[in-house]
Amino acid sequence: MKFEDLIGNTPLVELDRIPPAEGIASGVRLLGKLEGHGPGGSVKDRAAWGMLKAALDRGEVAPGDRFVEATSGNTGIALAMVAGRLGLKMTLVVPLSATLERVEAMKAYGAEVVRTAEGENMEDARRLAQAMVREGGHRSLNQFDNDDNWRMHYRTTGPEIWRDTEGAVTHFVSAMGTTGTVMGTGRYLRERDAGVRVIGTQPSEGSRISGIRKWSEEMTPGIYDPGVVDRIEVVSERESRMMAQRMAREEGILAGMSSGGVLTAALRVARELTEGVVVFVVCDRGDRYLSSDLYDAGAVDSAPG
């Protein structure tokens, strides 16, 4: 087996404790796609491989070239891992809010990490990365406008869900950050069955949920096509934290806050149904958040929302 064979083909697991507790009808199945099973531990493994390998294959870059990318964590880990595998160099601009585990994983894979200033967010990180490209010495991967991002999900995530549900999927629920996952997977599933509903997830005002974003108009990803998404569910940090804790304690799935937010949205969708198959993305593994207060029950009450 080659390295690239480890990316994708993540399992679908059926949640069978939270749905009954939330009053979900017996005819509705709620399935989580466990992206933490990838080699880099998140859904971003797919996009990182898709973007960097495609650029190499087209001859747009060569081994030894250095990229710079803004990231809140998972994309950075995946890019650092894949860049090292392909002989590329990677500089990652990371907000101070990123957990120690994620930053150290990026460094372990060989990436240079640049932290933003106190109080700066992901939009500031993106601006800094853009400035570094203008100054020279770095190439821009630009995951937010890079069609190879969503195409990787079109080629892999969508077909896997269709295959593993035997075409029974009725609803697909995803986080919205770069929007690559929801764009590529949503396009594929709707081509197979126009009746499949695609649901994106965004944070409520004041909520900080790594991996789930609501961008300003200036920073809205170029790959985002609102026509692919049937509806957007707004989730709070409090809900996302609570559901991440419940996934760990009730379902045995240790995942990050973004996964808790996506599950919150998926449960809202599931409550509206009497039958159906709702698939949601479990974005990453939770071990990269253990230095934070994500799994501290007391932190839920003070979270926004």
From TrEMBL:
Domain of life, source organism: Bacteria
Enzyme class: transferase
Sequence ranges assigned to domain Tryptophan synthase beta chain-like PALP in this UniProt record: 5-284
Pfam families for this protein: PALP (PF00291)
UniProt keywords, alphabetically: Pyridoxal phosphate, Transferase
EC nos: 2.5.1.47
Repeat recorded as keyword: no
GO molecular function: cysteine synthase activity
Signal peptide range: none
Ranges in a coiled coil: none
InterPro entries: Cys_Synth/Cystath_Beta-Synth, P-phosphate_BS, TrpB-like_PALP, TrpB-like_PALP_sf
SUPFAM superfamilies, A to Z: Tryptophan synthase beta subunit-like PLP-dependent enzymes
Keyword Transferase: yes
Gene3D superfamilies: 3.40.50.1100
Cofactor: pyridoxal 5'-phosphate
Name the UniProt record assigns to this protein: Cysteine synthase CysM
Organism: Gaopeijia maritima
Gene: cysM
